[in-house]
Amino acid sequence: MSTLSDVWLLLDDPQMTFSAGSQKVLPANTGAWIGNTSSTIGGDISIAFQGTSISFTGDISLSTTSPTWFLAGIDLNSPYNVSFPDAGTQIYTQWYQTPILPDGLHFVNLSSIFVNVDYAIITAGATTQLNGSTIVVDDRSSEITYTGNGWATSDTEIILGSGWVNGPPLGNTTHRTSNVGDGFSFRFAGSNINVYGVFEWTATGNVDVDFVLDGETTSSSLFVPLNTVVVHPEILNYQLFSSGNLLAGNHTLIMNITQANGNQSFILDYLTYQPSFSFLAGKPNFTASASSAPDSPLSSASNTGMTGAMIHNGMNIGAIVGGVLGGLIGIFISLLFFLWRWRRHRADIERRLQESSRLSYFLRGRLSDSPPPFYTKSSNRFSICIEKFKHHNLLQPIQIALHHQLLQESLAGKNLLHMMN
Q1: Is the pTM for the entire model greater than 0.90?
Q2: pLDDT at 266
Q3: 107 plus 224 within the same structural domain
């Protein structure tokens, strides 16, 4: 089977195309098969899939005369001979997996085969269309965070009882515990989620479990009812939780054991969900941001509060940074405005000084051959100039007042320029 870091798509046997003559077996709610169905094939199996590999699981060596090999053809390549694992022994196992293929659309044809098919696992690639697919998450996946000290990993085969072929769980392992306070958390982006495990029909006592999905709690109890006729000592694909339809988006599922008696255990095998993203590029990476999972719904609420506080603090930091940048921009705009006003004011002063200078030269040409200076720091010389203008017979009183005003403005303007410089 592919590595645990891959994304697996579950393909149940009713979704496959078989040659004529195949026989479908429908056990009555036994749970021995995924989806309660399997198919016995005597002929060909044809599969088209989008991804990088595909594997098949089911019973092999259905009779003492069953072929121990078959032909596998991939795309346009020549078929090659494949031998069943443990040929001659009737077991439930993964009996074929393609080599790792380039990401894309592939066609697989298995011919001259006599075998039982329960399900197939497709390893998704970047181009795999995920709409309508079912993602399966093995119990060893890093996307599942376990909490508590009672968890144990088991790789023993499941004992189905007389008349059934024993075999391993999906992915060959399970996680089990009966310790109060143990649990797990799983975050996903999808529109439903289901939890499957192994149930021990010969165990005594009970295990009470809370499943908390997005803050809503569903409680259940695992126990064997009185007067139950035991068909299987253990059973695969036992549904421990089902969410039903959810709004497509990000969700968090938390499991916590609240009570345990006897030797009954909670045994996790795998999770399934329908994704709300269309391609792997849109799959959120929840494991990158999550450092640990909560130990219980109560601690989950506490951790949620911490997360909210962290987000709130992040928002405050963003607001502060935005405010500082806004303030700096405002100061910069204000400086530009004052600089513009200062330049405009200086230009206005220079313009008026030039006008005053032109008027002074005009009066000098009209009133006297030896005009007063344009301006003087001596108040006495300024007064002498005014007195001289007053005695000129061509200068009217209004002209004297005008020139007096211009000379005062000129003096003030030059002093202002001197201060600026």
Answers
A1: no
A2: 97
A3: no
